[in-house]
Amino acid sequence: TGRSIYHGLLLSAQRRLKGNLSVLTNWTLSRCLSDPATTEITGPTIVNPNNPDLDYYYCSSDRRQVLNVSLVIRTPDFSNDTLRAAFGGWQFSPLVRWQSGNRSSVTTGVDSALTGMGGQRAVQILDDPYGDGTVNNYLNRAAFASPTTGTYSDLKPFTIVNPSRLQNDLAVTRTFRTSAGPSVQFRWEIFNVINKVNYNAPTTALNSANFGRILGAGDPRIMQFALKVDF
Predict the structure, then answer these.
(1) Distance between CA atoms of residues 51 and 42, nearest Å
(2) Residues of the chain with pLDDT under 50
(3) Dihedral sign for Cα atoms in the order 12, 15, 17, 22
(4) Closest listed residue to residue 121, CA positions, set 130, 129, 137, 110
(5) What is the DSSP annotation of 147-162?
(6) pTM for the model
(7) What residues have CB less than 8 Å from 127, skipping those under 6 apart?
(8) N or C: which end of the chain has fewer CB within 10 A?
(9) Is 81 helix (H, G, I), strand (E, B) or coil?
(10) Residue 128: beta bridge partners?
(11) pLDDT at 42
(12) Alpha helices per DSSP H over 45-173
């Protein structure tokens, strides 16, 4: 059977600072350790059957830190009719989420051990596996080598920490009400407000010409608008 251990510390705080402003924030510090991918039928997928403990290490989804901050800001009910009609009743809901990178394994990309098992890992020959952190040199190719033919590497899985991610979204809403008849809610949502480039994991197959390079990223800024009628 597979083993999976999760350690976590969650700190959360919520406070209504004023009548029209509330803040919710939480920070998580965690660690996830597990065997490789496990199913009820096959059990854990061990690369080296002679040394199953070598595959027990960090989960691919392990993210050491996650920080969330969300706000709800409402404009006041102005006493002036013109100001109330133009600026009253708006709600702004920004959300910021930062999370450290998940993890990847450096694999040979070939059957170095001549056993037909997939996911065989490379040998790390330098203490620091990272390049200069750019998209074309996130990992240092010189830090890795293939194991001797017919043998396995003693490198643990998921030793590489991928780039961190910053999510920054905003929702703007207002409900227009009439004394009689339906109400209409306007909603404007912006995802990735500052258009931050959130890079994907680098290529980690040693036999790839793109080894160590980051070839993709998350979505750019996206906006959407909606109108909802309640009657």
Answers:
(1) 17
(2) 1, 39-42
(3) positive
(4) 110
(5) PPTT----PPSS-EEP
(6) 0.82
(7) none
(8) C
(9) helix
(10) none
(11) 45
(12) 81-87
Residue 22, exposed/middle/buried by CB under 10 A (0-12, 13-18, 19+)? middle
| C-alpha dist (Å) from residue 89 to 85, 110, 178 | 9, 61, 13
Whether the CB-CB separation of 217 and 195 falls below 8 Å is answered with no
Scored b (16 or more CB within 10 A) or e, 56-82 reads bbbbbebbbebbbebbebbbeeeeeee
Which of these, 89, 95, 62, lies nearest to 75 by C-alpha position? 89
Per-residue confidence (pLDDT) for residue 40, from 0 to 100 = 45
Chain-centroid distance of CA 170 in Å reads 18
**Spatial separation of the C-alpha atoms in residues 65 and 69, rounded to whole Å:** 13
Structure tokens at 139: 């990992």
Amino acid letter for position 52: P
For the chain, the farthest-separated pair of C-alpha atoms sits apart, in whole angstroms, at 82
Residues written for the chain:
231
Can you give the C-alpha Rg of the chain in angstroms?
25
Q: Which residues are registered as beta bridge partners of 172? A: 92, 188
The strand pairing partners of 224, in sequence order, are 189
According to DSSP, the residues that pair with 22 across neighbouring strands are 16, 72
